[in-house]
User: Fold Required for excision 1-B domain-containing protein from Bos mutus.
Amino acid sequence: MITAEAASESTVSAVPGDTAATGVPEREELVWPWKDAPIRELVQRIHQLQAERAQAFRRLEEPGPRQYLSSGPPYDFPRYRSTVHEVTQVFAAASREVLAVEAELAGPRAQPLLASHVRSLQQLEETRLTTVALLQLMGTPELTGQEDSLQIHQLKMKVIKTMEAISEVLQDLRFDAESAE
Assistant:
């Protein structure tokens, strides 16, 4: 499986400019490694990115972040911050690549239906991340006394419904991609 990190490492540079003539350090243009890939491979890449996102969500559910949020002072903030930073990087890299796939499908590939599936997926992932973060915050000691069990239940249901919608969009994407080839 190619990770977002591997994909960024697999970029190739365009012909560099003449540094001596301009006196400015050369700037290389990066080429996206999936530029000429068949649509089937682009869809597979979306599924790989979704797997990376799922793994990142699991990292947020690990004991470390959960213990930090429920422990109260004194917090082990550096460890928590490190975990959140790593997860944020995974989400950001996945989002950049998903948006690149969407642009490829909407533009050069002229596949607006597939591009709309990818856009929907991105929006649903944003909703999921926001809702999970809110649920975690509601579990902190500072807010535990103020928690509204109905609101927590509604947020949990929203996460479940969002995950179901994500699965449906992925299924539609795969089916419509097969039809497009």
